């Protein structure tokens, strides 16, 4: 008898991360869920978005600075292009915050 997995969509994962954050357990959760390579990729992705939103460097310069392929920068750029100006502003504000 096959059963369905407990987590079946992205919103459930977001809710899990939110509840872990409220319980101050997000660091443990994310460290366990993500491999070291995935965590490194996430750091790169955040830096890609930050640099693209700042708009001071070309995609090639960002690629060289972060040590990632130009295709990775292009994927980030394409993702940003699909977002509203309001979403881009919100993301930019989030990325400027440092804890």
From TrEMBL:
Keywords: Cytoplasm, DNA-binding, Repressor, Transcription, Transcription regulation. The keyword Transcription regulation applies. SUPFAM superfamilies: TrpR-like (SSF48295). One of its GO terms (cellular component) is cytoplasm. The keyword Ribosomal protein does not apply. It is found in: Cytoplasm. Its main location: cytoplasm. GO terms for biological process: negative regulation of DNA-templated transcription. Residues 59-82 bind DNA. Gene3D superfamilies: TrpR-like (1.10.1270.10). GO terms for molecular function: DNA-binding transcription factor activity; sequence-specific DNA binding. This protein is an aporepressor. When complexed with L-tryptophan it binds the operator region of the trp operon and prevents the initiation of transcription. NCBIfam families: TrpR (TIGR01321). Belongs to the TrpR family. Homodimer. This is Trp operon repressor homolog. It comes from Photobacterium sp. (strain ATCC 43367). The lineage of its organism: Bacteria, Pseudomonadati, Pseudomonadota, Gammaproteobacteria, Vibrionales. The gene is trpR.
């Amino acid at each position: 008898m096959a059963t369905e997995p407990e987590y079946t969509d992205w919103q459930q994962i977001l809710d899990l991360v939110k509840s872990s954050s409220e319980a101050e357990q997000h660091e443990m959760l994310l460290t366990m869920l993500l491999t070291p390579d995935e965590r490194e990729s996430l750091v790169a992705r955040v830096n890609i978005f930050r640099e693209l939103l700042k708009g001071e460097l070309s995609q090639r310069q960002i690629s060289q600075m972060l040590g990632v392929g130009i295709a990775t920068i292009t994927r980030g750029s394409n993702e940003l292009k699909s977002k509203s100006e309001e979403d881009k502003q919100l993301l930019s504000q989030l990325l400027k915050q440092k804890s």
